[in-house]
Amino acid sequence: MFQPCSKLCSSSPGMNHQLQFLMWLVTIKCLWSADSVFSHIPGQGLKQVEPEFLAPLENHTVTQGRDIHFTCVVNHLGQYKVAWIKSDTKAILAIHTHLVAHNSRLSVSHNGHNAWKLMVSNVQKNDSGTYMCQINTDPMRSQMGNLEVVIPPDILNEEGPDDYVAVEGGLLKVRCKSTGIPEPSVSWRRENYTHIVFRQEGREKQSVMKYDGETLLLMNV
């Protein structure tokens, strides 16, 4: 690709020094414009510069329903292409600025310089995992970032008030089911902040301010 430049700077019989100098300036400009792909190494001439990542791929921890993006910054890309891959499923999401995955919540963009973005809108639980920005060099070059989608905890009220009625001296079993990512922990406290009392036959009475667990079993109420 630099043949025209080399021809420009070659001298010919009768060419005056001023014209040679102008040709040399044009040659330097040609080489400078290709700086992102080639570099001059003393004794070796022009040598192709391999692509390099300028910053690590970020990690994200977001609540379900939010929007996020990964930014892959590459210098000296040259004729190579940037691809986005979901590592855990080996699914190719996009190549350069072309979206491959059939997912309306995904999009890709390029700033015209050295930054490529993969955007995920309205993130869902199945979007969690590791994402890879890959360059098709030989061997390939890649970097990875992780997406963790968090679902806020919620209580599943499957039982009604009648399920918590017990006769005096009997047994009362109450259960609190919850959902969320990561899995939430369940604790019991009394509304008036007094102790929860556990009574079992043949054992001493025990009392606690807080009980951890999904199911609370009270005997001899």
UniProtKB/TrEMBL annotation:
Keywords: Disulfide bond, Immunoglobulin domain, Repeat, Signal
SUPFAM superfamilies: Immunoglobulin (SSF48726)
Domain Ig-like per the UniProt entry, residue ranges: 51-148, 153-221
Signal sequence, start to end: 1-33
Entry keyword Flavoprotein: no
Secreted listed as a keyword: no
Matches recorded under InterPro entries: Ig-like_dom, Ig-like_dom_sf, Ig-like_fold, Ig_I-set, Ig_sub, Neural/epithelial_adhesion
Name of this chain's protein: Ig-like domain-containing protein
